[in-house]
Amino acid sequence: MAKKGVIADIFSKAKFTEESQSYKIFYRNFEKIIETTLPEFMIQSDNLQTIPISRIKKIKKNNTILFEKKLARSE
Fold first, then answer.
1. How much is the pTM?
2. Is residue 31 classed exposed, middle or buried when 0-12, 13-18 and 19+ CB atoms within 10 A define those classes?
3. Which of 16, 25, 28, 59 might form a disulfide with 41, Cβ 3.0–4.6 angstroms?
4. How many Cβ atoms sit within 10 Å of the Cβ of residue 69?
């Protein structure tokens, strides 16, 4: 649940800022990772209705990584 809170915090701060285009969202779409801007992601996901938060792999602002999902270790 902590991941959803972190992502929700980033989105709430970024959605209404003039710099929202500088936020890049990387999300899993089947076997591919798609990169898009935050405003475009919100349109594509219908405000997180069609693309859940759990598919987000990374969020960057400019060159700074704000969130990155860790890979699960296979044993």
1. 0.82
2. exposed
3. 25
4. 16
pLDDT in tens, 9-42: 998 888 778 889 999 999 999 889 999 999 999 9
Amino acid at site 73? R
Cβ-contact 23, 14 below 8 angstroms = yes
Residue 72: helix, strand or coil by DSSP?
coil
Distance CA 39, CA 59 (A): 13
**Residue 68, beta-bridge partner list:** 58
53 by DSSP, 3-state: which? helix
pLDDT at 73: 59
